[in-house]
Write a structure and sequence with these properties.
3 domains; single chain; elongated; 291 residues; three-stranded antiparallel β-sheet
Length: 291
Amino acid sequence: MDRLRAMHWFVLLADTGSFTQVADDLGISKSLISKEITRLEKDVGARLLNRSTRSLQLTQAGEGYLERCRQILLQVEDADSYIQDLQSKPAGKLRINAPMALGMTDLSRAFSAFMQEYPEIRLDIQLSDDWVDLVEHGFDLGFRAASRTFDSSYIGKAITRFDYRVCASGDYLKKHSAIRQPEDLQQHNCFVYSYFRGRNEWPLGDGVQVAGNLRVNSTIFMKQLIMDGQGIGFLPSFVCRDELADGRMVEILPDASRPQLELYAIYPARQFVPPKITSCVNFLKAWFENQ
């Protein structure tokens, strides 16, 4: 039995909860994975997984073993990365977690350029606005956009900054009362982004409480309703840049003070940072600086 391979498959099973998904991801049969896990359990002398037709659950022994497997596999990756670094050839699979809207706009173009520069690196990118624990879900690198500093057990590198824009359509503004100061927004239908840390308070001037008939976890979705004249949104510049430029949306209160949105690249602290990670972070920072 290949112990490291068995540990890797065990971690994948714990993360996905599915023999079928792991088999599909690895391109092998479920029966091979099942036999390998059975051999692993026999070798360590304990049941690691409780299996049923519908679900997988870690046993108490499995939970403790999982944590130690993650540490061992990370050390193996560090050792491999050290050799790759000596050879100066960033390569291998890079699993990345990034915000949905940014991934569908600027980051898609940035990673297209990165793939041309580093063809030896295989990207596995998941877009999600949920706050994901990178280590727990097996990600090498994550990107987080925040207008406030946040506590993190990871190493964080600032990549770039974006502005916020208060946006509406020309049709909406024609049909509703004038907006001359942030407080006027309280009389309007203002959409709320579910993951915004300020909740229903937009950080304009001293802050203004807003309300409306839409709360949504996607600024891309919100943008379409704004263009349709349904209400007003508080959007990052990378979401609304093109629409403001061509007149499909109009910026409101451009002179009101507001914070900037900073994009960070974050990754787990380790003795040897894999060159594929440092290459990606440095490339994206330079890419944004040149835009």
